[in-house]
Amino acid sequence: MLRLADAVKVESNDFAIEDLLEEEFYLAGVREVYGQQLAAAGVEKLELVGGAQLGKRVERALDAIGVQFNKGSVAKRIRRDLSCMKDLGDLPEETQTRARTLMSALTASLATVSG
After folding, report:
1. How far apart are the first and last CA of the chain?
2. 91/30 Cα distance (integer angstroms)
3. Taking the model in full, what pTM does it have?
4. What is the per-residue pLDDT across 72-106, written as a single tens digit (0 to 9) for each?
5. DSSP labels, 26-88
6. What's the pLDDT band for 14 if we cut at 50, 70, 90?
7. Which of 35, 34, 71, 77 is closest to 54 using CA atoms?
8. How far is 37 from 35, CA to CA, in rounded Å?
9. Is residue 106 within 8 Å of 20, Cβ to Cβ?
10. 40 near 14, Cβ under 8 Å?
11. Distance (Å, rounded) from C-alpha 100 to C-alpha 115?
């Protein structure tokens, strides 16, 4: 079985699909979805703490200011942003690297299964 963290060569037992994205790229989606709530709470920059999955860190940061996190809403926003991109070069460099590494690992894994 191929674990996502192993596929992208990240030493973590706590890695999810959103962790493929550069943190600031993901946070831009969070700000788009929760901009009004962040402004109402007087939060200019969401401070993430810890080394867990990015989504879990965002959830804790929002929870600390009384905002309920909906991972799906952020995912929809990011999916929309991704669909507007012309090519891989529009992604942040770290995200490009992780995506390439993941695709290589998946290709190698599939080759061993079918071969």
Report:
1. 16
2. 17
3. 0.86
4. 999 999 999 999 999 888 999 999 999 999 999 99
5. HHHHHHHHHHHHHHHTT-SSPPP-SSS-HHHHHHHHHHHTT----HHHHHHHHHHHHHT-SSG
6. confident
7. 71
8. 6
9. no
10. no
11. 22
